[in-house]
Amino acid sequence: MTKACDLSALEARRLIGRKALSPVELVESCIERIGEVDGALNAITAIDEDGARAAAKEAEKAVIQGDALGLLHGLPIGIKDLQATRGLRTTWGSLLYENHVPDTDDPVVANIRAEGGIILAKTNTPEFGAGANTTNKVFGATGNPFDPEKTCGGSSGGSGVAVATGMVPLATGSDHGGSLRTPATFCGVVGYRPSPGLVPRTTRPVALLPMPVLGPMARSVEDAHLLFQAELDLDKDDPFSSDDLLRIPDALSGVDLGSLKVAFSADLGCAPLDNDIRKVFASRRAALAHLFADAHERDPDLSDVHEAFEILRAVQFVAAHKERLENNRDQLGPNVINNTERGLKYSLPDVAWAHKVQTDLYTRFRAFFDDADILICPAASVSPFPHAQLFVEEINGKKMPTYMRWLAMTYALTMALPSAVCLPCGVDHLGMPFGIQIVGPIGSDAFVLEVAFALEQALATDPETARPLPDIAKLAAGKK
Question: What domain count does the chain have?
Fold first, then answer.
C-alpha cells in the first residue's frame, strides 16, 4: 500500500481538497520517512515537527470548514538552507551562521506559506551554495539515495534527496552553475531552472547579474509546475522580475512531440563529457528520436563560455564574500575561498570582456532556436562520484583546470539565460540515475514545461528511460 509521503504532490493536494487525505496524516507520514532514511543520507539540516503539526491541524480545519484552499494547501515543503525561514534554523551551510534563526521568511518562502504550504524542514547545501557536492563544515556530506557513499550533487543536493526519498513531496532549490539540475539528475528527480525574474531572487549580491535563479524540485514535471506556480511573483526588488509569469498555464496538457524539431547535443560543443556518459546519451537519443518530427545533432555556439562564466561568477563571489574572506577566513570552506581569491585577481578589462562574451553568447543562443523548437542534452558530465571527493578532478584522463569545469554541461547554458528542465531518463552505465536537459531560450518557460511534461510521459513507458526509484527499505536498514 502506498504511504501518504509517496503520493505525488498533485495527487496529495487533490485528495486533501476532497477530504480524502488529512494534512495531519501527510505531515506525519513525511516525518516518519525522515526518521526512517535520513540517518543514512543526512539531507535534513533542521526540522520543525511541532510547527508543521500545528500547521497541518489548521490546514485540516480549513478543509473541514470549506474554506478556500491555496495551491499547496496541506503539503509539507522542504526549503533549501540558502533561504531564510522564520523561526527555523538557517545556516547557509556556513559556520558563520551555525546557530542563526531568522525573524522573517525569504520572500519565496513567504509565498509558499501563503499558498498553504507547510514548511517542514531545511535541506542541506554546500557553504553559501558554492559547489556541486553537498557537504559543509556544519552538517557534513549528504549521500545519494541510490548509494549513500556517493554525492547527490549540489548545491540543491539536500532538496533532491528529500524529494527522491519521499521525505517531502516538494522542495525549493536554486541554480547558478547547475545547482538545481545536477542534483536532480544525480537523484533521479525533476529540477526546473526558470528564466530569470519569474521567481524573484532578491538576495543576489549583484542584482544586475541574473544568472542565479530560484526554482522547484519534485518527482514529476506536474509537481514541479505546482510548486513553481506558488513561487511565481512580481517583485521589483529583483530588477529582472517580469510579467512573463502571466503566460505560465494553470495546468499542463503537454504538446504533440511528433510536431517538434529537436536538436540533440551530447556536449554543447564545449563541455567535457565522460566517454561512458556519452554512450548512455547516444542510446537515449536513439530511443527518443522517433518521437519527434525531426531530430538532428547540432551544438549551440557557446564560444569562450568557460572563462567568461568564471569571471562573472567571481564578481558575485567577491561582492558576497570579500569581507568574510578578510575577517573570517578560518571559518570558510575551500570553495568559497577559492572562488573569492580567484575573483580578486581579475581586472576591469577582464570583467568587461566577460560581459561582452555573455552578451554575444546570449544572442547566438536565441538565434539557435530559429532552426529548432527545443534542445536536448545530458544534465551531467559524469556519473555520481564518492562524496569524499570534493569535485571531479579529471574526465577521460584529462585534468580539469578548475573545480567547476566538470559542470560545463549546465553552467554553459546558464550563460545563455535559458529555461531548462532536468528530466530523469533511466540509469547510466553504473546503475546510477541519468538525466537529460530540456532547454529553450529565455521566456519559453510555458513551452519548455509542456514539452518536458509530454516527454516525461513517453519516458515512463519504457523501463530503460523511466524514472528510477531508490530502495527505501535498504536506506532505512542502513542508518548510520
Answer: 1
